[in-house]
Structure to design on (490 residues):
């Protein structure tokens, strides 16, 4: 009951901010159009599949969910600094109510965002198959990594810092090291090794494998993403609970 | 009957003692003002009593339940209006009230009734569907107190409730707070001493984490041989009159 009430409040708080709507839903679509136009202007003889829709759709689906870190981090940080959380901490709400109340709306938003991005990709040439449905689910589950980052930084930092880290730094790192915008194999070396260690590239590969129905390829990549998600979420819960108990983190 | 019984309650942060062995009883329906200069330990005391932080020593019992042993039971009986307005900015006035009522376990029908009641009681009818970020500071303060009262708390903590309000808005809030006297036990912290004179049954003065004086305004001025609460407060806080 309390989880539902708090989740509804958080949904309203995020969706009533038009900037959030733009970055959450509009930005991935704008990128899809722009990169599809760039792809169309690459001559076929160049044999460059970097921005082909099969690569672009899973990449943009993942990149779109990176904004979940910004949404969750900003909301939590704002609630903390405005003392709204203090009011709720003094109520009978439990830490589970808080964590799920913040996470569930963003998971649902990630589902909607992934569905919009992937179905819109069908208009740009992505094959419409039943695999789109599990791909939407894999994308939304991968988004929990970013929600976790948001909750972690939102528990520790003020709005300005969260905006810088989750908005500028994390989205850039996730974008550049995911292989969506630059070819990792072509660059190779340390850059590729770092991308291999971090979860963002694997997130894209997991969505790509699901879209193509190659489920054997899904788990190795998705497993890495899930492992990172668990670690980040555990850290976020610890940081949040310490704040809730009035301890310095 | 006592609403709050505080016994040797302390809060230490490493070597620093924010609240030092506080002993105090507050009766049901009493409006008790806690005074002190910045850093005296008022907010830490309120945070311990509202289960936001745990005491490192001693305990406090609120209407039969210990803040250390049964914080959830305590939380169900209290509510707080923090120093900042602490409202959900993108939610309307009525949505904010309904949210808090729901969180304190009211069913959907009761939520509507109590939210409507609060809107009327605090003069928020004209702005009931307005987003709170569009409200004036005074309106936000009123909403903040209405949110603290919608759960029908037996004990209410008001931390600087009129901070930053103009005279008229402050007087309006005083009237609202006065109307609660006798029904709800209120712990008030403020830097406005005229507010303390207008509202309080008793006053406690904290200095360096210790409660150094307690009594009615009249008792405190008599004790210090001063004519105003401000002079008494300055004297009891270690300042020069």
């Amino acid at each position: 009951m309390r989880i539902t009430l708090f989740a509804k409040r958080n949904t309203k708080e995020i969706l009533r901010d038009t900037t959030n709507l733009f970055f959450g839903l509009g930005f991935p679509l704008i990128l899809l159009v722009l990169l599809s136009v760039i792809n169309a202007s690459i001559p076929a003889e160049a044999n460059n599949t970097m921005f082909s829709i099969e690569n672009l759709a899973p990449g943009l689906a993942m990149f779109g969910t990176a904004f979940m870190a910004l949404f969750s981090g900003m909301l939590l940080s704002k609630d903390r600094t405005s003392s709204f959380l203090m009011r709720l901490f003094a109520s009978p709400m439990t830490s589970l109510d808080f964590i799920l109340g913040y996470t569930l709306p963003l998971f649902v938003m990630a589902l909607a965002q992934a569905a919009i991005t992937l179905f819109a990709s069908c208009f740009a040439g992505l094959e419409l198959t039943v695999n789109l449905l599990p791909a939407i689910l894999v994308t939304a589950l991968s988004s929990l990594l970013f929600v976790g980052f948001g909750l972690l930084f939102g528990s520790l930092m003020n709005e300005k810092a969260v905006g810088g880290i989750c908005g500028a730094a994390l989205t850039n790192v996730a974008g550049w090291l995911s292989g969506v915008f630059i070819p990792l194999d072509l660059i190779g070396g340390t850059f590729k090794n770092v991308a291999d260690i971090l979860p963002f590239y694997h997130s894209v590969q997991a969505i790509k494998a699901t879209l193509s129905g190659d489920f054997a390829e899904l788990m190795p990549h998705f497993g890495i993403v899930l492992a990172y998600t668990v670690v980040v979420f555990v850290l976020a819960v610890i940081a949040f609970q310490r704040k809730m108990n009035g301890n310095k983190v | 009957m006592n609403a709050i019984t505080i016994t040797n309650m302390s809060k230490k942060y490493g070597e620093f003692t924010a609240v030092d062995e506080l002993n105090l009883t507050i009766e049901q329906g009493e409006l008790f003002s806690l005074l002190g200069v910045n850093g005296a330990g008022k907010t830490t005391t309120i945070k311990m009593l509202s289960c936001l932080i745990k005491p490192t020593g001693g305990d406090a019992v609120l209407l039969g339940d210990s803040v250390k042993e049964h914080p959830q039971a305590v939380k169900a009986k209290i509510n707080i209006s923090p120093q900042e307005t602490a409202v959900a900015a993108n939610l309307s006035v009525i949505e904010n009230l309904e949210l808090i009522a729901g969180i304190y376990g009211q069913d959907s029908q009761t939520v509507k009734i109590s939210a409507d009641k609060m809107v009327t009681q605090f003069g928020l009818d004209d702005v009931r569907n307005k987003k709170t970020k569009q409200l004036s500071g005074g309106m936000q303060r009123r909403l903040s107190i209405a949110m603290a009262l919608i759960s029908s708390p037996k004990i209410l903590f008001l931390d600087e409730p009129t901070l930053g309000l103009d005279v008229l808005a402050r007087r309006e809030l005083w009237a609202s707070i006065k109307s609660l006297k006798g029904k709800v036990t209120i712990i008030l912290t403020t830097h406005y001493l005229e507010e303390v004179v207008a509202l309080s049954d008793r006053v406690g003065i904290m200095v360096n984490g210790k409660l150094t004086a307690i009594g009615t305004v009249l008792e405190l001025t008599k004790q210090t041989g001063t004519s105003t609460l401000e002079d008494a407060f300055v004297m009891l806080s270690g300042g020069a009159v």
